[in-house]
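Fold it.
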Amino acid sequence: MGRTARISTSVEAATLPTVVVPVVFDEGVAFIAESVPANVGGQTIPRTLAKEWCAQQGFKPEAGSATVLRTLEDTNVAFVSLGSSYNSLEGYRLAGAAATRSANDGSVAFFLPTECIDDPLDAAQALVSGALLASYKYKPVEVSSTFDVVPLGSPLPSVETHDDVTEGVRRGEVVATGVNWVKFLVDTPAGYMPPKELARQVQARLDDDQFVSVEVWSEPRIREEHLGGLLGVGEGSAQPCRLVRATYDPSPESDIPHIALVGKGVTFDSGGLSIKTADGMMAMKTDMTGAAIVMAVVSIASRLGLEVKITAIAPMTENLPSDRATKPGDVLTIRNGMTIEVLNTDAEGRLILADGLSLAVEANPDAIIDVATLTGAQRVALGDEVGGIFTSTDELADYFAIASSRSGELLWRMPLVESYEATIESDIADMKNMGKTGSGGMIAAALILQRFTDGRPWAHIDIAGPGRSDSVRGYTTKGATGFSARTIVEFLESVAEEARS
C-alpha cells in the first residue's frame, strides 16, 4: 500500500480530495500560470494572490510553503510555492513534498503548467520524487493513494511535452521508490535485520530487476576469499557475515562505462570492545546505510535502463563485543594481502570496506565509488545536511558537483592531505585503522581506503551525518534518509550520457 504516482487530467483531478495549484513569487505577490483552470473544485482561481493575503495566510515565497482552502463538500485547493522560478528542480521536490502533506494520506493532484518549464521531464521527475520521498512511512499504511500529475499548457501540452512529463513521472517514481526501500531497510530494527536478512532482502529485490545478477557469499566462501577485514569485524557476533555482489550489465557485448560501487553494511555497530556510549549506540542500526544504497542504485539503474555496467559490493556484518571479538592491537589481513593494525575496534567500517574495495579493483572498473556512514568526524565538520566527498581526480569531483546540484543532496569536497599519511603508519602492520586522536579523523579514514583502490579513479562519500534525520525537513522524513543514492544515480546517468555522445 502507500502512495503511487501517475499522469492524470483536469477532469480526473476534480474528483480527488485535494488539488494543488503551484505559484511563483515576485516581491511577495504569488503568480498563477494562465493554463491553470479558472475554477477548481467550485472555487475561483485568480491569476495573482496579493501580498497582504499571502501574509495573512502565512503563505511564504520559499519553495514548499503552502496554504489550503478547505471546503465541506468540494475539492480542497492548495496553493504551493515553487519559489521564484518554474525551473528549479529543488523547488519542485519541495513543492511535491508540501503537496502530499497538504493532503495527509489522501490522493492529490498537482497542476503542472508546462508552458512555463524549460525541461518538463526533469521537472516532473523532481516533483514526483519529492512527493513520494515525503510520503514514506516505516509503519504500514492501510490505504493506498495517488499523486496525480496533470500536465497543462496553452492551449494544450504538445504530444512531445506530454510524453516527457509521463517519462518524468515514471522516473521519479522509480528513484523515490528505490530510496524509500533504502529507508525501510535502515529503519528496520537491527534484531530483525542481521546480515543474512539484509542479504536476503537485497536478493529478493534485485531478482526482479532486468540484466542484474546477484551472488550472496556466506562465511565459508568469505573465508575462502580471504576477506580478513570483514571476518575480523564480525568475530564478536553470533550472527554470520555475508557479502553481496551484484552486477548490472545491460550490454555485455558493448564497451560501456563500468563503475564499481562499494557500501558499508554494518547492521549494528556497538563499537566492539572499544564500546560506544549508550547514547552513541541508539541509532547504530543506521550503519548499514551504505550497503543498502549501493544495492538500491543497482536496482534503480536497471529500472531506468541506464547504459552503464555496475559492479556493486556490500560486505555485511555486526560489530559486537564478546570473548571472540577482535581486540585492540590485533592485526587483520585484507583481501589484497595488506595488513591493518586495529587500535580502535569502533573504526570498523574501513576494515570491511578495505575488503570490498579490493574486490572492486579486481573487477577492473573505470572508477570506484564507495559510500558509508563512516566517521563521527564527518558530522562534526559538516553537520546533518551535508555529506563529505573525497575524490582522487578532479574529473570525478566535477561529475559529483553536477550530480549533487541536480539531486539537491549537498556534498562538500574534502582534501586528501598526503602529509596525514604519517598518522596511519604502523610499527607492526602496513597501516593502523586510525589516525591522530581527535584530529582529521575523516581524512585519515579516507586515506586508509585510498590504499585499497590501486590508484584507480575513486570517490569516497561519508554520510555519517546526513544518513539520518532527527526531524522532518522538506521532502526528508524522520529516520533514515538514503542520502547520496540519488546523487550516485545522477552521476551514473551523466557517465552513460557522455559515453553515448
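The chain has two domains: 2-155, 181-500.
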